Amino acid sequence: MAGHYTVNHHAGEYTNEKSLGTQMVEGYFSQLKRSIDGTHHRVSVEHLPRYLAEFDFRYSTCKMSDSARMARIVEQAEGRRLTYKRVTAA
């Protein structure tokens, strides 16, 4: 975050020219909590940054079409080593 701004709720202010508003932040964290509870049920501290990165990507691209979102994922994977682990039947 580049800066921290405040609003005065007692004066009926919920956003100003410098802040995005508390509603956006509250909505983000509300959806994050529902996502963890509804999809993952439990997250480990070790992998928490991955869960947060996944949610942040989905939240940031929610207005994109599925094909545009997939194209962005592929573009971001360029230059990265992707591994594949084959699962065999016992």
Give the arrangement of secondary structure elements.
Elements: H1 22-40, H2 48-60, H3 66-77
Helix pairs in contact: 1-2
Structure notes:
- The chain has 90 residues and is mainly α.
- The protein contains three helices and no strands.
- Helix 1 packs across helix 2.
- The longest helix has 19 residues, at 22-40.
Order of helices and strands: HHH
> What low-confidence regions span 5 or more consecutive residues with pLDDT below 50?
none
Q: What share of residues are in beta strands?
A: under 5%
The outline comes out as: elongated
Helix count, per DSSP? 3
Rounded mean pLDDT is 81
Largest sheet: none
Secondary structure category: mainly alpha
Distance between termini? 49 Å
Radius of gyration: 18 Å
Helix % is: 40-55%
Kindly state the number of beta strands.
0
